[in-house]
Amino acid sequence: MDSTSTVSMLFLLSSFLLFIFLPFLCLLCTLSSKKRPTSSKAQSPPLPPGSMGYPYIGETFQLYSNNPNTFFALKQKKYGPIFKTHILGCPCIMVSSPEAAKFVLVTKPTSSKPGRSRASKERMLGPQAIFFQQGDYHARLRRLVLRAFMPDATRASVPWIEDVALRALRSWDGREINTFQEMKTYAFNVALLSIFGKDEISSIEELKKCYYTLEKGYNSMPVNVPGTLFHKSMKARQQLGQIVAKIISSRRQRNVEGRDLLGSFMESKEALTDDQIADNIIGVIFAARDTTASVLTWIVKYLGENPSILKAVTEEQEEVIREKEMAGGGDKTLTWADTKRMPFTSRVIQETMRVASILSFTFREAVEDVEYGGYLIPKGWKVLPLFRNIHHSADNFPEPEKFDPSRFEAAPKPNTFMPFGSGTHSCPGNELAKLEILVLLHHLATKYRWSLSGSDTGIQFGPFALPLNGLPLTFSFKTEK
Ligand code: HEM
Questions:
Q1: Which keywords, in A-to-Z order, does the entry hold (predicted)?
Q2: What pLDDT score was predicted for residue 480?
Q3: Distance 225 CA to ligand 1 centre (A)
Q4: Most buried among 81, 108, 219, 327, by the most CB within 10 A?
């Protein structure tokens, strides 16, 4: 496959499905014992079963003429848990067993080749952002990102997140809202808080405006001519870099050491350059916002459709309030400890992430020939672990289409539940995501009621799996009992 076709694949894929911003990282296949002896063709294991479709376009139309999840499910039914196909100009191997997903995502790499996204998209997000990296620089970035998002760092921010949640909910009262759009605003505000803390207010409004312009041009044709969306987007990207540089310089002048993500990036021992910081801040916003907002939108939908589950969530959350009142002290603000007393609500979040599987898959690229399960994965082929298929397999989750949070009372079998991915590129923001969802749900369930505005059902991809039209709802404050 030449570089032009790789570029086309990435462009099309990003305009349709998922994780456009995430790495096209290399699967560095190790285990020398499993290597295919390249000198002797006779000993080569066969390619997995499957069909490659027409020259160049492969099976792209079959994939996109329907819900892509239907394509994956049909293929798996026909060929089993490992199969080959050809989509968007690339030969691919798709894997849908927990073991194979683990092999692809967790197996330690021995050699590397940078996974590239389409150049224009990398320029928009930032070529030095964490998704596109591996090796020492990736490990260093991960340490810095994790330092800011691990429970130790986020526990103090519960009241701030609560403040953001309450402001959002108040603004929905009595209105018909597009749930996804509103959840995006909420997740954006929480992400900004965890990146910059509370003290950069004036720059943050400017930053938000530029980010919205950047995002509008993300899937546009990469024609950098004045007047085009792409051009506006690239200008906004430049301005974003300048705003971040301004915030950094203000922190340096004031000698502030924040415990937020920016503080972690600026910390002297492993400090990044200003450009590296800007790329990674924009990348984290990109990773944090639509993902969390999609999950929240699905939760609201599933709770609306399952009154007994909503009742159980509400009772659990009311119990948290009661316990706080009984403990006295008069402080009604949520604490980290309160969020640890929400086991049923946490299972609702898990079950939502399983059923909705907003990221149907991720992908890597084999950097050398490797054998898995008696089949050859050839160098240069894309390898796609199909999260959704794993989450919807009756072997892993009985009655997989049923929304049943109680199934998470027992831990799922190893490698069967991967809403945050697995291995070296797994989601470093998962604790923050769960925390901000819990905080919003606490107030949503105890203070608000909602009803679906339309009769639309179904699913859309934008780029993550979403209820149709972003789930229009009417929200209102519960009247006193
Ligand atoms: C419910 C919400 C979220 C979901 C479902 C989610 C899911 C994922 C998944 C599956 C990956 C791995 C992709 C791969 O292996 O190719 C990932 C990576 C990532 N996520 Fe999340 N994520 C969520 C929220 C967040 C938040 C809130 C943040 C930051 C505050 C974040 C930051 C990141 C970053 C920086 C990466 C790249 C890690 C790397 O390449 O090393 N995510 N996410």
A1: Heme, Iron, Membrane, Metal-binding, Monooxygenase, Oxidoreductase, Transmembrane, Transmembrane helix
A2: 56
A3: 33
A4: 81
Task: State which ligand 1 atom lies nearest to the alpha carbon of 130.
Answer: 40
CA distance 248 to 46: 54
> Residue 372 belongs to what H/E stretch?
strand 370-372
Which CATH topology does 1-114+359-391 take?
Answer: 3.30.43
pTM of the model: 0.90
The residues facing 375 across adjacent strands are 372
What is the structure's pLDDT at 114?
31
Residue 23 alpha carbon, nearest atom of ligand 1 = 16
Token pair in block for residue 343: 């086991």
Which residues line ligand 1 at a C-beta cut-off of 6 Å? 22-23, 130-131, 142, 145, 149, 191, 284, 287-288, 291-292, 295, 358-359, 362, 419-421, 425-429, 432-433
Domain boundaries, the chain: 1-114+359-391
DSSP state of 392: T
The DSSP element (H or E) to which 249 belongs, if any, is helix 229-254
Residue 232 and residue 120 in contact, taking contact as beta carbons nearer than 8 Å:
no
Ligand 1 atom, smallest distance to 433 CA: 27
DSSP notation for 150-189: SHHHHGGGHHHHHHHHHHHHHHHTTSEEEHHHHHHHHHHH
pLDDT reported for residue 118: 63
Whole-number Å distance between alpha carbons of 364 and 455: 39
- The pLDDT assigned to 463 comes to 72
- Each residue of 368-408: pLDDT tens digit? 888 999 999 999 899 999 999 999 999 999 999 999 999 99
The span from the CA of 416 to the CA of 69, in Å, is: 17
**92 assigned to a ligand binding site:** no
pLDDT band at 259 (very low <50, low <70, confident <90, very high): confident
Does residue 27 have a pLDDT over 60? no
Instruction: Quote the radius of gyration of the chain (alpha carbons, Å).
Output: 23
DSSP state of 394: T
